[in-house]
Design a protein that fits this description.
The protein has about 160 residues and is α+β, with helices and mostly antiparallel strands. It has two helices and eight strands; from the N terminus they run αβββββαβββ. It has one domain: Umud Fragment, subunit A.
């Protein structure tokens, strides 16, 4: 009987850990060429959903957008939502990068805002168009160095543009 109880307890612990992992980590399939060559379409990336403390210039982040494809401050709300994947180019208080000076007034990124850029500027909609985007819209941070198998063609959970 004690062996059976230990086995049941082990299964319950594993189930709880699996549920926790799903709330902390997500696997997202990249769609679109905006982050090429670093992230090509079909590539799967592991995202830390609670990774806001990991925000650093140069990291790749996932943000939520509104129905028009613009980053929004709220990951929940009315209307369709889509995830976008971009590189964090500047944090609040850091100098505004040259390539977004026309879209972001002032010498420094405003508080509560970020500058996001695609790695493939000719094929990316990013802070050059949107200006500074809300930090509150960040869903998570891509764990770089983790290599997942690329997604097979077909529907998935695509992000990027």
């Amino acid at each position: 009987m004690p062996l059976l109880l230990a086995a049941v307890a082990g299964v319950l612990v594993l189930a709880a850990l699996a549920a926790l992992a799903r709330t902390v980590f997500s696997v997202i399939v990249v769609s679109g060429p905006s982050m090429s060559p670093a992230l090509r379409p079909g590539r799967r990336v592991l995202v830390v959903r609670r990774g806001l403390a990991r925000l650093r210039t140069g990291r790749i982040v996932v943000v939520v957008s509104d129905g028009d494809g613009r980053p929004t401050a709220s990951p929940v709300g009315d209307g369709p939502r889509r995830l976008l994947i971009k590189r964090l180019a500047a944090l609040p208080g850091e100098p505004v990068p040259d390539q977004v000076r026309d879209a972001v007034p002032g010498p420094a990124v405003p508080g509560g805002r970020l500058i996001l850029l695609g790695d493939n500027p000719g094929l990316s909609t990013d802070s050059r168009v949107w200006g500074a985007v809300p930090v509150a819209g960040v869903v998570g941070v891509v764990l770089e160095g983790v290599r997942l198998r690329d997604a097979p063609p077909g529907p998935g959970r695509p992000v990027g543009r």
